[in-house]
Amino acid sequence: MTGSTAGRVVVAPDKFRGSLTAPEVAAHVAAGLRAAGAGRVPVVPLPVADGGDGTVEAVVASGFTRVETEVTGPLGTRVTAAYAVRDEPEGRVAVVELAEASGLRRLPEGSAPAPLTATSHGTGELIAHAVRHGARRIVLGLGGSACTDGGAGMLQALGVRLLDAAGNDLPQGGAALRDLRAIDTSGRLRGFEVVVASDVDNPLLGPYGAAAVYGPQKGATPEDVAVLETGLARLAVHAPGLAGRPGAGAAGGVGFGALAFLDAEIRPGIGYLLDLVDFDRHVRGARLVITGEGSIDEQTLRGKAPMGVAAAAARHGVPVVAVCGRRSVSDEELRAVGIEAAYALTDIEPDPHRCMTEAGPLLERLAAAFLVP
């Protein structure tokens, strides 16, 4: 960023889930500022993500290149999924978002979740495609998964063999892990490093683990949860000491699979991805940062994207305000995490349905009314 953009406004929101992507949120806020006569102030759209849904879209908006390929969806059907790449001095970096290939949003229309057989295989196929096209570092964003397979499908797609007592390869899904007896990594695709970008700190097993906490969100009954827990425990036997690591339970245990068999490093999602989009460079010298997400609530205060943006902006002394669809936390709670004020669509439109279906125009009105610097 050149000196001519000093005093700019940086618009760095996450997505409004179910309404707008992060780039769309940033574009509407910027349009609202311009409509209100803020054209004299440079506005820099810089959509962000924390590793979950929308991560690829966010980094593509910041200059990464989108790559599409066909992979296996969570139920075994073929889907078209994307990842993002950028060439760095140390080699090509690929951002792979698990939800793109193995997320609940990839379930075929009209299909019910299949918690026992859903697979992360497509995520491994995305990684393999990126590596075979020159990627040397994989940034793996975890969130929104349809599977609870401990990353088994991902590993199989990368050449790891998961074998039963007879030496046969296991079928897809978390339930099949109950029959796991041996793991052969000799054929694993190599020549790359993995950084897991995730703010989930759940362990793999137990009452706060992948099956117990997230299984029901993917359609698992109490009986299914017990089956999945047994399978994940069988997987954990093959990597002693890692099941309790914070983040091992992310995305149905894919965090564990990456830690144990891909030698991955887990990094805080929003912090690492802010580094990827060069947030510090953009915010240095800015007069204001506008962040946001669909709902600003207690989870926001526990480290989601707006809180990460506020912490990064605070290091440069730049004030932060937020936009959202709705909010359920007080001004005092927001100020405690570095957000000076938050403005919700429900402040100008009391109908929640309209806030969802007309989020873009409402954001422009909100920006024009409250955010002109």
Strands, helices and their partners?
Elements: E1 9-11, H1 22-35, E2 43-45, H2 55-61, E3 65-72, E4 78-88, E5 91-97, H3 98-102, H4 121-132, E6 135-141, H5 152-157, E7 161-163, E8 182-184, E9 193-197, H6 210-214, H7 222-236, H8 250-261, E10 265-267, H9 269-276, H10 279-283, E11 288-296, H11 298-301, H12 305-314, E12 320-327, H13 331-336, E13 341-344, H14 352-357, H15 359-370
Helix pairs in contact: 1-15, 9-12
The largest beta-sheet arranges its strands as 3-4-5-6-9-10
Order of helices and strands: EHEHEEEHHEHEEEHHHEHHEHHEHEHH
Shape: globular
Strand content: 15-25%
What is the third-level CATH name, the topology of the largest domain?
A: Glycerate kinase, domain 2
> What is the rounded distance between the termini?
20 Å
Q: Which CATH-level-2 architecture of the largest domain?
A: Alpha-Beta Complex
C-alpha-based Rg, rounded: 21 Å
> What profile does the largest beta sheet have?
6 strands, mixed
Total number of domains? 2
Helical run tally: 15
User: Poorly predicted ranges (pLDDT <50, ≥5 residues)?
Assistant: 1-5
Mean pLDDT: 93
Chain oligomer state: single chain
Q: Could you give me the name of the CATH homologous superfamily of the largest domain? A: Glycerate kinase, domain 2
Number of strands: 13
Class from secondary-structure proportions: alpha/beta
Write up this protein:
It is a single chain. By secondary structure, the protein is of the alpha/beta class. Helices cover 34% and strands 20% of the residues. It folds into two domains: 3-48 and 278-370, Rossmann fold (3-Layer(aba) Sandwich), CATH 3.40.50; 55-269, Glycerate kinase, domain 2 (Alpha-Beta Complex). The chain has helices at 22-35, 55-61, 98-102, 121-132, 152-157, 210-214, 222-236, 250-261, 269-276, 279-283, 298-301, 305-314, 331-336, 352-357, 359-370; strands at residues 9-11, 43-45, 65-72, 78-88, 91-97, 135-141, 161-163, 182-184, 193-197, 265-267, 288-296, 320-327, 341-344. The strands form three sheets. The chain has a six-stranded mixed β-sheet with strand order 3-4-5-6-9-10, with helices on both faces. Helix 1 (22-35) crosses helix 15 (359-370) and helix 9 (269-276) crosses helix 12 (305-314). Residues 1-5 have low confidence and may be disordered.
